Amino acid sequence: MVLPAALLLVFQFSVASSTSETWSLCPRGCDCREGIKYVNCSAASLQQIPTDFPTDTEQLDLSKNNLTILPANAFPSLWRINILLISSSNVKRVEGGAFDLLENLWRLDLQRNDIRDLGHRFSIGLSFLNELLLSDNHLEKLNSFMFQNLDNVQKLNLNNNQISEMSSGAFRSMTRLRQLHLQNNQIDNLTNGVFFMLQNLEVLNLQGNQIKEIDTGVFTSLTSLTLLDLSKNGLERIKFKTFLGIQTWGTHILLSENNWTCDCELQRVFGKLHSVQRLIVDDYENVICLEPPALRDLPLASVDTQLCIAETVTVLVITVTVFITVVAAIVMAERNRKKRTGKHWSEESEDFDSQN
Ligand SMILES: *[C@@H]1O[C@H](CO)[C@@H](O)[C@H](O)[C@H]1NC(C)=O
Ligand SMILES: *[C@@H]1O[C@H](CO)[C@@H](O)[C@H](O)[C@H]1NC(C)=O
Ligand SMILES: *[C@@H]1O[C@H](CO)[C@@H](O)[C@H](O)[C@H]1NC(C)=O
Ligand SMILES: *[C@@H]1O[C@H](CO)[C@@H](O)[C@H](O)[C@H]1NC(C)=O
Question: Domain LRRNT spans what residues (predicted)?
Answer without folding.
Answer: 25-59
